[in-house]
Amino acid sequence: xxxxxxxxxxxxxxxxxxxxxxxxxxxxxxxxxxxxxxxxxxxxxxxxxxxxxxxxxxxxxxxxxxxxxxxxxxxxxxxxxxxxxxxxxxxxxxxxxxxxxxxxxxxxxxxxx
Length: 113
Description:
There is one protein chain. By secondary structure, this protein is an alpha+beta fold. The chain contains six helices and three strands, in the order ααβααββαα. Strands 1-3-2 form a three-stranded antiparallel sheet. The longest helix is centred in the C-terminal third of the chain and has 19 residues, at 93-111. It is globular and about 50 Å long. The model has no long low-confidence stretch (mean pLDDT 92).
């Protein structure tokens, strides 16, 4: 049953759940990296400084389960796995770029406090 109203302050609200899914330490960074191009696991780990292998794995699995990231296995002489954004993931890039621009303007003020 679809709710007739949305209130992100209510725990069961899908809006709140969607925001909570995106509001962790690594999600935005990984989505912004994947907006540049598809990456292999090791490339992503080098791109996003200080992320552990465990957190990278957990975050990519979460993003894949939520339909934001696609995991593609390439079978050749050596099996490689590539991660890329889905259409749903791509739909987040403009809002995330806006947040990134805000952080460029006001980030120092927040860090200096």
